[in-house]
Task: inverse folding
């Protein structure tokens, strides 16, 4: 979808009230979907084609459009408005938000992100939220967090036959990540008995400043393919852990503080984040190695991302991430 739109997609846009001819410009950043900005003399829009491997797989199109519909219905304006969907094309058309991805994580941007999460959840009712599903990889109890990391490591563990870079990745997982996880899992098992079930919140999921646009100092938010009900601890840990626009630990504490005051209030949130943050750090080490899994390479190809040198680059990022967070640990 990097050239002119094909007839079926053009017809879909026209059904949404947006008529060509268009200029088509690829939008960077999407790792699982093909995203382009289409424009003409009347305006600009975002056209997204979703990756859907199988009917039973996570419904990215449904999750994003349902979540955005809920947000827009609540009067939250710093998100795109869905203009239409086409299930056969796995496509959605959205209004185009102004701004660019932030270059750095400022304290103000972190505060705006936390306030956005609070606004999503403030005074919501069952009538508003009844159709919203669980987030992808949702955590509803303590062991769900551990199971996520355990599963990520298992997905990267196996026969190390193949190219040299693949053998290096398998060695990194077996010799660095897996031993760190065994030690951490033993530590966390000692805390499990005292943990109670936490009320889930509506989470943007995969939430961080990498999924924001800054315009005149204000943030808008994009990419809700994994959104839904989830543990606020997972949302907070992912916000702190995401590596594309990293936040400092102090900014992570700031983010958690706003959530703790605004969501319940929840006086135990910071303590649970501190306990589970290392598990999510290891999970993110594994996420950085997703490219070594065939299914994820298919998604990236669908999204139109270049593959040259990708494996070596991701292994280097994962190695540096591990060294930064597990060889020089700073307490949350």
Result:
């Amino acid at each position: 979808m990097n050239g002119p739109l094909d007839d079926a997609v053009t017809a879909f846009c026209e059904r949404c009230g947006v008529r060509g001819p268009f200029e088509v410009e690829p939008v960077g950043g999407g790792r699982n979907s093909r995203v382009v900005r289409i424009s003409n003399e009347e305006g600009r829009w975002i056209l997204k084609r979703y990756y859907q491997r199988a009917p039973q797989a996570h419904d990215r199109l449904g999750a994003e459009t349902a979540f955005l519909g809920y947000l827009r219905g609540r009067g939250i304006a710093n998100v795109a408005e869905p203009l239409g969907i086409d299930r056969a094309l796995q496509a959605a058309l959205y209004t185009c938000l102004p701004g660019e991805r932030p270059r750095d994580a400022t304290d103000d941007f972190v505060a705006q992100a936390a306030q956005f999460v609070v606004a999503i959840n403030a005074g919501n009712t069952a009538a508003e939220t009844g159709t919203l599903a669980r987030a992808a990889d949702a955590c509803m109890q303590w062991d769900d967090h551990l199971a996520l990391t355990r599963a990520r490591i298992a997905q990267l563990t196996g026969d190390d036959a193949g190219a040299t870079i693949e053998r290096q990745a398998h060695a990194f997982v077996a010799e660095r990540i897996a031993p760190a996880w065994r030690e951490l899992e033993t530590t966390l098992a000692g805390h499990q008995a005292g943990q109670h079930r936490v009320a889930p919140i509506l989470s943007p999921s995969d939430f961080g400043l990498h999924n924001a646009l800054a315009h005149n100092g204000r943030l808008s938010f994009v990419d809700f393919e994994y959104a839904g009900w989830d543990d606020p601890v997972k949302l907070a840990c992912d916000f702190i852990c995401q590596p594309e626009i990293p936040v400092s630990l102090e900014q992570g504490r700031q983010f958690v503080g706003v959530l703790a005051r605004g969501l319940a209030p929840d006086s135990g949130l910071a303590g649970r984040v501190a306990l589970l943050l290392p598990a999510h750090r290891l999970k993110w080490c594994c996420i950085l190695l997703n490219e070594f899994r065939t299914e994820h390479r298919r998604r990236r190809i669908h999204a139109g991302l270049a593959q040259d040198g990708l494996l070596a680059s991701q292994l280097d990022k994962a190695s540096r991430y591990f060294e930064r967070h597990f060889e020089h640990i700073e307490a949350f």
About this structure: Confidence is low (pLDDT under 50) at residues 301-306. The longest strand covers residues 34-40. The radius of gyration is 20 Å.
